[in-house]
Amino acid sequence: MGLPDVRGRDLTDHGPLLDGSPKMRAILTIIENIADTDATVLIRGESGVGKDLVARAIHTQSARRHGPFVKVNCAAIPSELLESELFGHEKGAFTGAHRRKPGQFEYAKGGTIYLDEIADLPLALQAKLLHVLQDFRFTRLGGHGEIAVEARVIAATNRDLEHALARGEFRQDLYYRLGSGPRRSRSWWHGSSLASTRSTGGRSSWRRRR
Ligand SMILES: Nc1ncnc2c1ncn2[C@@H]1O[C@H](COP(=O)(O)OP(=O)(O)O)[C@@H](O)[C@H]1O
Ligand SMILES: [Mg+2]
User: Which atom of ligand 1 approaches the CA of 49 most closely?
Assistant: First the structure.
């Protein structure tokens, strides 16, 4: 049995973003413009269009490039485990919580947390995430003390969020907080809508905290 071709896999997993088309070049310009803000970013597009690569490119072009890049696929983790996965838990928070476990938001400290398939977040967790994006603090399951979010948040979805809104499957307040809907500032991207951002959000609240 041969060894896996790690180099090849690395190239496909985190290869450079190709800029062969005018649309892709427009996206690279957007990435350059937003990378060094701490704004929350929502990346939308069908499967395979390069959302993961864009998220990684934003991270590697930001001042956080030396920090961690933590990806959480919200669709791949059972919903009952997702809250603990994201925010961690204290010992005894629930049956089977034998010890304290930090969440991915903590592991992403100093870097970027990438929440893939955000539309698959259960409604209750959408509410919690909204608070986190507003206050930049959270509490571990079963915990009391608040923990500061010290990560930049990038979210992605391939779902039709407007459709999910209409069906009551996605919270409108989170939708606006992530920068969808009518923009408060200039919109970054029209057409296939790969990336949008709330440029007034994360940065100021982040910087204030330093
Ligand atoms: N602009 C691009 N430049 C280089 N590779 C790309 C580009 N867009 C997509 N890919 C490749 O296509 C595949 C899917 O990209 P990925 O970021 O996982 O898409 P998504 O997250 O939108 O499903 C990856 O192997 C990625 O390397
Ligand atoms: Mg993806």
Answer: 22
Which of 157, 168, 175, 146 minimizes the C-alpha distance to 54? 157
* pTM value > 0.70: yes
* Phi and psi at residue 116, to the nearest 5°: -85, 150
Pocket around ligand 1 at a 6 A CB cut-off: 12, 15, 17-18, 24, 45, 47-53
69: Cβ contacts below 8 Å, ≥ 6 apart: 55, 56, 59, 60, 108, 111, 112, 114
E strand residue ranges, the chain: 41-44, 69-73, 88-89, 101-102, 112-116, 137-139, 146-148, 152-157, 195-197
The residues near 73 (Cβ < 8 Å, ≥ 6 apart) are 116, 117
Residue with CA closest to ligand 1 atom 14: 48
| pLDDT single digits (tens) 53-111 | 999 999 999 999 999 999 999 999 998 899 999 999 999 999 989 999 999 999 999 99
Q: Which residue of 53, 58, 69, 120 sits with most ligand 1 atoms within 8 Å of its CB, as the best mutation to test the pocket?
A: 53
